Structure formats: structure tokens, C-alpha cells
Amino acid sequence: MGGDSHAVVLAAGLGRRLRPLTEDTPKTLLAVDDKPILDHITDALAATGYEDLTVVTGFEEAQIRASLVGHGDLSVSFVHSDRFRETNNLYSLWLARDRIGDGFTLINSDTMFPRSALGRLQSAEGSALVVDAEKDLGEEEMKVDTDGDTVVDIGKEIDSATGEYIGVCKFDERGAERVVDALDRFVDEGRVNEWYEAAFRETFDDIDVSIVEVGDDWIEIDDFADLQRARQMWQARTIPE
Known about the structure:
Blueprint: E1 6-11, H1 37-47, E2 52-57, H2 61-67, E3 75-80, H3 89-95, E4 104-108, E5 111-112, H4 115-123, E6 127-132, E7 143-147, E8 150-155, E9 163-171, H5 173-188, H6 197-201, E10 209-213, E11 219-220, H7 224-235
Parallel strand pairs: 1-2, 1-4, 2-3, 6-10
Antiparallel strand pairs: 4-9, 5-11, 6-9, 7-8, 7-9
């Protein structure tokens, strides 16, 4: 498996800001255009030539497993987090560490994006983050700063930013090794409630990570306003297939 054929989707979270819709349903299984968000992601992966998918589950694991039964275009495997209530997505990615060493594409399970961006990510050399360089950035956005074409920093709190990381990226084999090393350090130190971007940040001195422009509409679905906007965007087809 490698970054151009193996994807990891992190789907362990509780989706608290979308309760009561997520009281008994994982956020990634909420419908947009009569299809779960997760289906939009897996359809995009299959359409762009991915073969293997690892899903990290937590809340309502059985529902997510059932939703992916019979997805013939992808070979799907699962990693479960028993600590999903007390940890963040850094820990979720660390749980998949034995599966990502050859390289991987990573997708947050609440992000909808154009398939063309995924295709450009596949075509990019080495490791890369998908970034929106057009959006106005506030305090909550996961910002990316670059020096030329190379990422030098990532975080919500950074002052200078090229754009927003959309929650889609890939790391080649060398990059994946560095990411796993950083994840191990964080978990060894008990820092399991941090964003995985904190581990990415520690790799930038060792590897070159470029950016790929998202190039079209996309959305991260955090709350009710985001979900409503996603449904409107999909109905108007501003997020192209």
C-alpha cells in the first residue's frame, strides 16, 4: 500500500456540535443529497483509483462498519479506538500507525471536497497538503504557512498563513515514517488530546511538504450551519463530482 492507493479516514469522533442529530449517529453518516458524507468520500476515493481504505472508528463503530459493507471498489479495513471520548484525532491516526508506513492519504470524515482536488493530490510529488488559499481565515481555521512551495508551519494559532488546510493530505513513504515517529512521541508523552497537525508540524524540518490548491468549493461540517450549507452547496452542485 502507498499514498496513492491507500487512504485513511478518521471517523472516531462524537460530533457534539451536531447533537441531537449525532446522539445515536456518527457525524460522517449524516446525509448530504440523500447520501452519507462518508459515501461521498469513498466514492471520490474509488473514482480516483484508490484501492485500500482504513477507517478509524470510535463512536457507534457498528454503524460505520455496516455502512461500508459491500463497497466493492475498495478493500476496507478498520481500526477501533476505545478511547474516542477522551482523545483527539492525533490518537486516532496513531492507532493506524502500523498501516501507514508505506505512505498514505489522510481524509477527515467530515470534509466534502471536489474529486479533482484528490486527483491533483495523487499527481503531486512526495508529500502534500490540500489547501484553500482563497478563504478569509479566522481563529478556528487550521492555517498553513509556506516558504515558496514548501509548508513551514501549520496550526490554528499561527500569525502568517498561505491558506487553510482542508483536512485532506498525503505523505509518501519517507514522510509517513517521520509522521509515525512524531505520533509516537506525542503518545509516549501522553499528549493524546491534540490535533494530528501538531505531529505534522514536527516533520517539516525533515521532509518537504508541498501544497495542492483545492481549486473549487469544499466544506468541513462541524455544526448545523455547516450541514445546511453543505446540503445547499450539493443541491446547487457547487461541489463538483
